[in-house]
Write a structure and sequence with these properties.
110 residues, 68% helix, 0% strand
């Protein structure tokens, strides 16, 4: 596990440190949580029990999604629409995600 994580090139973890995390159940730093999340293919928030930290991770995920210019453009164009129109757009977006085999909205943000 330590070798695989080190091969990512984003940082290194020693086998001894991974053993400490397993034995003591200590909370890893955000950097370590990101590396472990990449290894296990889960969101970094998976390793954090603190609700505040989970909320921050979710906000970062939102910011990353909005970096996509197409996503930002869609969001900006929806501003000012009625609640009914926004709901219709959400349903169309969900249908498009299903057609492309992408996870549902709730799976994406968790």
């Amino acid at each position: 596990m330590a070798r695989t994580i080190s091969a990512y090139g984003d940082g290194t973890l020693s086998g001894a440190y991974i053993g400490q995390l397993r034995e003591k159940g200590d909370n890893p730093s955000i950097r370590v949580a990101r590396l472990l999340a990449k290894f296990f293919n889960v969101p970094a928030g998976f390793f954090v029990e603190d609700d505040g930290t989970v909320a921050i991770v979710e906000q970062f995920q939102l910011v990353l999604a909005l970096k996509d210019k197409g996503v930002t453009k869609l969001a900006m164009r929806a501003a000012g629409l009625s609640p009914a129109s926004k709901e219709a757009l959400l349903k169309m977006t969900e249908a498009a995600r299903q057609m492309e085999g992408l996870p549902s909205e709730t799976e994406t943000l968790s």
